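Problem: given the chain below (248 residues), write out its structure.
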Amino acid sequence: MEFSDQAIILRLGLFREADIWVRLFSPGRGVFSAFAFGGGRSRRRFSGCLDLFNEVLFQIRRSRHGDYLDLREGALLHGPERLRRDWRRLGMARNCAYFMEALPLGGEDAAGAHALFVDLLNNLETREDLPQRLPLFFRARMIFAQGYAFDPDHCAVCGRTWGEESAVFPPGVSGPLCLSCARPALSGGILLRPEALVMLRRICKASLESWDMRDIPEWAQQSCARALEAFWQSHAGLRWDHGRFRNA
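Solution.
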């Protein structure tokens, strides 16, 4: 059975002498693997296609027994240039791609995640002022998109609005708490002062291209980053270990 699919290349590897193993991310199927047999020397079937973070329209055939997918040919739709020339931007993209590979995505989850990943690649390609912690913010935003979003303006327990007050992000709680509700759980909680809460709101609500943290003090960025890292690790069940995201 043959079908067409539009996908982003997350990872490639040689398989035998001229065959290539490809890790792909499509809005309909999520992350999946396929083989480009002869892709290492074919200039006609995969002209300019087989490179990291290219968006390609592939013609795909399922094997006779359904145990692997065979990429028959591809048409390049979009390929980043600046991203692959700049090691910092490329490193950010690869870190986010590893996270996408580790997440169990399928169905409607895959479509939203794919749109967010395309937005990330566009920012890495065109934006000048990239936030230092962009991959961390992206991981948190991806977890929000999987149904774990919280309201950054109100206490997750009593619904109180912070105003100019601080909040606490205790471990295992799906959102920040006001100081009164957090008092029993202060041990191990991360204190978010008003400056850190401003940053948290931007990550939760604003588009990726609006993530500008230059007006946020470094100490506030650090506390917000610690809270978000604890949040996505808790809900994704993943941690960074030896160059990969693995089950915690």
